Amino acid sequence: MTGISARAAGTNNSWRVVDIVVAALMAVAGGVIFWAWSPGANLVSAPVNAVYPPLTGLYAGGWMVPAVLGMLIIRKPGAALFCETVAATGELIMGSQYGLTVLASGLLQGLGAELVFAALRYRRFNLPASLLAGAAAGLFCGLNDSFAPWGWNIAYEAADKFAYIVCTAVSGAVIAGALSWAATRALARTGALSSFASRKAATEPVFS
Amino acid sequence: MRQVLSLHGSTALLTRANPLAKSAAVVFITAVLALSIDWVSASTALLGELALFRLAGLTLRLLWQRGWPLILAAAGGGWSTAVLSADSGRILLDAGIWSISQGSLELGLGFMLRGLAIALAATLLMSCTDPTDLANALAQKARLPHRFVLGTLAAMRLVGLMAEEWQTIGMARRARGIGSHGSPLQRLRAMLGQSYGLLVQAVRRASRLAVTMEARGFGGARRSWARESTFSRLDVWVVLGGALIAAAALAAAVAAGTWHPVLA
Amino acid sequence: MAASGAGVRPAAVSARGWGWRHAGRSVPAVQGLDLDIRAGERVLLLGASGAGKSTLLHALAGVLGGGDDGADESGTLLLDGAAPRGQRGRAGLMQQDPETQVVLSRLGDDAAFGAENLAVPRGQIWQCVREALEDVGLSGFALDHPTSALSGGQKQRLALAGILAMRPGLVLLDEPTANLDPAGVLEVRDAVGRSLDKTGATLVVVEHRVAVWKDLVDRIVVLQPGGSGRPAVLLDGAPDEVLARSGRLLAAAGVWVPGHVPATRPRARAGAGPVLLSAEDLAVSRERPRRRGVPPVPVQSGIAAEVRAGQALTVTGPNGAGKSTFALTLAGLLAPSGGRVRASAALAAGAGTEPFKWKAKHLIARIGTVFQEPEHQFVTGRVHDELMVGPRHLGRGGDVVVELLQRLRLDHLAVANPYTLSGGEKRQLSVATVLAAHPQVLVLDEPTFGQDAGTWAELASFLSELLDAGTAVVSVTHDEEFTAVLGGTALRLGPARMEAGAA
Ligand SMILES: Nc1ncnc2c1ncn2[C@@H]1O[C@H](COP(=O)(O)OP(=O)(O)OP(=O)(O)O)[C@@H](O)[C@H]1O
Ligand SMILES: Nc1ncnc2c1ncn2[C@@H]1O[C@H](COP(=O)(O)OP(=O)(O)OP(=O)(O)O)[C@@H](O)[C@H]1O
Ligand SMILES: [Mg+2]
Ligand SMILES: [Mg+2]
């Protein structure tokens, strides 16, 4: 393949066509991978659900991968929000057990990650930032599920809600945060990100 | 997944309605159901939705195909609600962290039906809505920025291809000696490797698709639309129908005295 | 020029000392390009693999680089006297991969996409679209026909229609017929001709085989790779004149000159060895059975074939016939949907008679497969590492890799990223990766597409050597010269069995 896209990238914050398409596909691909994993995941989650339902929160991080991954790759304001919303839309189209409310959870999870990157003024995309963003997305996911009227855990007792939120936050940090960070570095190593601000992600320092 | 993404050949009435009108109807229903966990409002809405599945172009078989995973999921949600919600009334089961009382069982049942009704509404919506029409409506009528809407639409089209790609990449890796046989750990590693391969392919494909789109002039501020997104009289009926189902669910629950607002 | 051509203003190109170096490369892809293309001219752009043809086309379409860090441009390249990047819609580019050429999921919408982006009024769009679809021979389809249900060849036509509907002043086609069967090649070429006759637009087409386009173009330009220090244009002139005068020079530059097949090493031993692999009443399909007992409708069934040591087997057939599906099944990568693939004891060497059940490690030492789409098989970030994957898994050294790099002319790219190679270079690399594992049976899906004459001859010679040494070679190909060099037996698959309801 030769050209990637027109117009300069640099520190420009406006989205190019290639940013939009790659971000959207990233979100959708996250959905497909998750979909391919889910038979195995169901095997794991059914007994967990039978034993102590809040533990299923440990698995929730998978849904928040697009938010963190999208931002780590595109590095433009709004990327986390956009990717997670698109991922939720994709899930809606493929058939979601949450109905339209999946859009609300997508928006909120994306917002969680977005706020962290915004607080870092879209300058830090290292491991701590990713973990934090993942945890924030997880936190918002847990809050949404526990306190929004459409949340699936709305009727739980307070202690169970709390346990669930801790689980989603941890899961968000580990699965969405750490995994996305590692995936971005691996992607950068293949040269696939050559037209994005993250092209050098593989050689960036881990902590600063 | 391909079939889900294309409505080719469907002549059902609701496929002709504007996606925004249909969405509005589903929003009404979802909103009312979200306000309360009770089995009366949920089953009223569920019945209303089931009466419409033909209009959305579904057959009984298709409905079952798409419906059973939703039932499983809703049952899981019902179970966890039943064991974890605050107890009231007679205790039916008490085993350590689990306890089910009459009150919590009723809540669990209501929760399950509610989840099902919410999910089914969206399933009906999506089975009579072509993503292209939805994008057209979002960009032309809801005035969302067209670059984002169409960029996403183009990426969505690759979804079906990605599912195929998953299989192809699996084969290609096997042909290179990186297989998915062996112990669970080896399999997990192979799975991760394959996911990674898919991700790389996804980024490459999307980058190339972006070039294709730009090579066809995409990305400017102004564009025209070959297909106009319009509202018709049908859309009025669709919105009214959604409102009607929502109102009926509410009225039935209030009349039966089961209305149970979640935020009270 | 017919009346409907009104509104198309043919574009002119002018390059002065233009050059481009890709990010991460030390040598420019194009260097010192001086070229003028008059409005309305039709140019066939030739050159060896990696000569920078695609790079130039992307630059003309205004989609080159931009975001890439470290890419380097020199000189000027102008479209109607201004930089191509700012002139959206003046040039329409058709890239090679048909799958990423399709943007939307309905045929009519996809063809209209370009025109919409140029803000053409609605009424006019549909008129352009209908005309363009008719030009490329797709007018038989409904406008809402799903694009995913088109075959590879039809997708390529649709991509062309999308570009024609934009009414660009400059039509840029990058190997538009690479994956088509012989009948499809002529159809697409004629579609281009018809449309140009109508609009009078300028054309630049890249293709390795001259014969197809010779009569449609009025000028041939041959590029040579950048980094040689010489100007980019090697030859330039009217087709007949260039072909008559500089046939030898062209052949040396890796161009396919009509009537001239590059010299290859002849087969030394004709006899065939023992059967290694056989297909018995085989039915093939990509789709896996959805439920137990309900097999998918196979694309092909009742295939019988034998693969013998030291013998070539060539698989041919129209686009969409199921050739690739068959090759993958034979190679033990897809499960047969009926019948069986049996490995002889000599090949299996203790691994069982069904290749599909072998472990990956056992597979690569016995059967090597080259996919139709090279990129699917790349698993590392460097050409050299890519070649080492096979030998390393088998616990062998890397001597063979050095030789392969040299023979397939990839040595200057050893540290490059496989994904950034040119189309032809990717193909060579994917073939080389399989050769490096030295399997007993080679299964090659379109091994010669997009190859210039030089690397083509090298590959054919290499395979003829392997055949003489007792390797079996199965190739899926539309390439008759290639089949002639390898000899052996042929298997022709008829048109695929279509599922009920498919158009
Ligand atoms: N994105 C890229 N990054 C780095 N190098 C590149 C990139 N694209 C192409 N190249 C290199 O630039 C050179 C010219 O490539 P180009 O694709 O223009 O060749 P080509 O003439 O089209 O060859 P082919 O006939 O094989 O398609 C090649 O050596 C290739 O490896
Ligand atoms: N990944 C896939 N999943 C499902 N069906 C596919 C897939 N790839 C191809 N097909 C279908 O299977 C049939 C056979 O495809 P195949 O790729 O084997 O054809 P082919 O003979 O190799 O064609 P070509 O000459 O275009 O490469 C086609 O009708 C095609 O639409
Ligand atoms: Mg090329
Ligand atoms: Mg094929």
UniProtKB/TrEMBL annotation, chain A:
Pfam families: ABC_cobalt. Keywords: Membrane, Transmembrane, Transmembrane helix. The keyword Transmembrane helix applies. It comes from the Bacteria. The chain crosses the membrane at residues 17-37, 57-74, 131-150, 162-183. The keyword Phosphoprotein does not apply. Signal peptide: none annotated. This is ECF transporter S component. It comes from Arthrobacter deserti.
From TrEMBL, chain B:
Keywords: Cell membrane, Membrane, Transmembrane, Transmembrane helix. InterPro entries: ABC/ECF_trnsptr_transmembrane, ECF_transporter_component. It comes from the Bacteria. It is found in: Membrane. This is Energy-coupling factor transporter transmembrane protein EcfT. The chain crosses the membrane at residues 24-47, 67-86, 236-259. It is a multi-pass membrane protein. Pfam families: CbiQ. The keyword Membrane applies.
Automatic annotation (TrEMBL), chain C:
Gene3D superfamilies: P-loop containing nucleotide triphosphate hydrolases (3.40.50.300). Residues 8-255, 277-503 form the ABC transporter domain. GO terms for molecular function: ATP binding. The keyword Iron does not apply. InterPro entries: AAA+_ATPase (IPR003593), ABC_transporter-like_ATP-bd (IPR003439), ABC_transporter-like_CS (IPR017871), ABC_transpr_CbiO/EcfA_su (IPR015856), ECF_ABC_transporter_ATP-bd (IPR050095), P-loop_NTPase (IPR027417). Pfam families: ABC_tran. This is ATP-binding cassette domain-containing protein. Belongs to the ABC transporter superfamily.
